Amino acid sequence: MGFFIRDLHRHIEEQHTEQFGNQYSPASFTVYRGQGSSKIDFKQVSKTKGGLISFNNFLSTSKKREISLDFAQHAAINPDLAGILFIMQIDPAQSTTPFASIREVSYFYTEDEMLFSMHTVFRICDIKPMTENNRLYEVILTLMSDVDEDLCALTDSIRDEIPSWESG
């Protein structure tokens, strides 16, 4: 399994360089992700508005809002879930996180997918209900740069808490 994960990450890096590396100042763009979240987990996310959120898996997104909104609306049908439409603002010139369009290789090419590598970190800019029943929400995120002060402080804190391999 580790081989597959490393190989996929490497392919995303290669595609990222090919798609964005040669541009002097690539234009910012927006991608979307619709999903369900337990109400407890969503409440935790809501408390961290202005803070950071990390997706600890490969993150599939779409450039087409309607497609992602369908996923969020479908999840909101379940009374135990909150439907979430993540609206992710991406500035390729500021980011060091590998991501790439997989439209040409995806089975669902009409979704115009962008795939982000593991552990992608975003700032939570805003959270607002999309419906009156408070079961469908928009969460606006901005992709973080590795030089962001909050992200650097968090990374340093995590490093300090983890014992080094040499001492174990």
UniProtKB/TrEMBL annotation:
Gene Ontology CC annotations of this record: extracellular region
UniProt xrefs under Gene3D superfamilies: Toxin ADP-ribosyltransferase, Chain A, domain 1
PROSITE patterns in the record: TR_MART
InterPro entries: ADP-ribosyltransferase (IPR003540)
UniProt xrefs under SUPFAM superfamilies: ADP-ribosylation (SSF56399)
Segments forming domain ADP ribosyltransferase: 20-140
Pfam families: ADPrib_exo_Tox
Name the record gives this protein: ADP ribosyltransferase domain-containing protein
Annotated organism of origin: Rotaria sordida
